[in-house]
Amino acid sequence: MIEHRVLTEHFDTPDLHRLEVYESIGGYTALRKAVAMAPEDLLSELEASGLRGRGGAGFSMGKKASFIPMGTMDKFLCCNADESEPGTFKDRLLMQRNPHRLIEGMIIAARAAGANKAFIYIRGEYELQADILDAALAEARAKGYLGESILGSDHQCDLVVHRGAGAYICGEESALLDSLEGKRGNPRLKPPFPANQGLYQGPTLINNVETLCNVPLIVDRGADWFRTLGTEKSTGTKLVSVSGNVRRPGNYEVELGVPAREIVEGLAGGAPEGQTIKCWFPGGSSAPILLPEHLDLPYDFENMAEAGSMLGSAAIIVVDDSQPIVEVAMAIAKFYHHESCGKCVPCREGTSWTVKMLDRIDSGEATPMDIEILASVQEQIVGNCLCVLGDSMAMPIASMVKHFRPEFEAHIEQARRAADREAIAAPVEEAA
Ligand SMILES: Cc1cc2nc3c(=O)[nH]c(=O)nc-3n(C[C@H](O)[C@H](O)[C@H](O)COP(=O)(O)O)c2cc1C
């Protein structure tokens, strides 16, 4: 069986979200171990595990934590639970089924980073999950896992759940910090990076829910055990959200490096009856699309990047041959245009212009030369924005033009002919 359940191992246990049930399956033993360890040793263990961020960029978790400067200033830990990338719905499952694993991971990560104030920034729509987390936090506090002198040690940490108001941009780490501080969630100019100047100007470690959920497992079972899962550079398992044109959409936990085809066709059942796969997004809607032949690649950080895309948040969106590529591109462009915060010009203007150009292509008003301009504008957006929201639209759109240019051209031609036919028919109808 290709599924390898480590993070989701006990998800069938009834009431796993309750503290006593979590403890009965070994919950909080990693914390007991961690409070007896020096923060430097915890950092070394996390770095040695090779754990890479599960929120999108895939940066080494241990290395990022080691960037937090020493010293007595206030330091913070933020868990990114905004989960707004289209196609991504794995963090919701982790928080809903096993909130204590995240809380335990955060208390340990806070010790490693020298932080004693921690926040979970959760998207506003996840009301149920936020309520579950609040209830779990109350249990953890009452049991002495949070607060001062945790389990009689020198570690002190408190944790607050903060509900967002439903803006995709607030998942970008610096916009998340502004939002947490009570400001409008806009990305900040970087550097300085949050590890040096983050929340309230203090050093801040920001990690995704799934990244932090791996922490207790690494501390409990060891970095060497973690490295036995996945590949040399993409260690561990990954929760993959599969959606779009597949027979069995859902979350599947697999070791990194399994063939993508086994996830898409094996676990998710492949395209619906009578359809074939046209293309797929390997890492959420911001990842450049890949073609059916790429399904034979190992699904990990390196192979997705080498194929010209990215693993991102590991949300696979499958597009079958019944979907016109121009409509797929339009759905992507409209989403990012709507979610652009407008703070920087390339993103604000680039996303709005792209929607207008795709509209021209869809209505047949565009010329084949416009497809060229569409592609070149995407190139000008990438790398020129304050954060990568603009790139998140430009990269997939550019990849669609690259792989499906003849379909874009045919779409214009068909739409133009349909418009011509309508124009010719109109006076006849009027006369009749
Ligand atoms: C526009 C935008 C939206 C993002 N949304 C999320 C999100 O919802 N959740 C998340 O974990 N990371 C998101 N990220 C990535 C974060 O900025 C950051 O890299 C991540 O939280 C770091 O955690 P990790 O190292 O554990 O992956 C987003 C980035 C951008 C540019």
Labels describing this entry:
432 residues; de novo design (two linked rop proteins); Rossmann fold; binds flavin mononucleotide; 46% helix; globular; 16 helices; Ubiquitin-like (UB roll); 3 domains; alpha/beta; single chain; four-stranded parallel beta sheet
Overview of this protein structure:
By secondary structure, the protein is of the alpha/beta class. The protein folds into 3 domains: 19-225, Rossmann fold (3-Layer(aba) Sandwich), CATH 3.40.50.11540; 237-320, Ubiquitin-like (UB roll); 325-425, Up-down Bundle (de novo design (two linked rop proteins)), CATH 1.20.1440. Helix content is 46%, strand content 11%. It is built from 16 helices and 8 strands. It has helices spanning 19-24, 29-35, 39-49, 61-66, 90-97, 99-113, 127-142, 173-180, 209-221, 223-227, 260-267, 301-306, 325-339, 345-363, 368-381, 389-431; strands spanning 76-81, 117-122, 158-163, 204-208, 237-244, 250-255, 277-281, 315-320. The strands form 2 sheets. It has a 4-stranded parallel beta sheet with strand order 3-2-1-4, sandwiched between helices. Helix 7 (127-142) links the parallel strand 2 (117-122) and strand 3 (158-163). Helix 5 crosses helix 6, helix 13 crosses helix 16 and helix 14 runs antiparallel to helix 15. The longest helix has 43 residues, at 389-431. The model has no long low-confidence stretch (mean pLDDT 96).
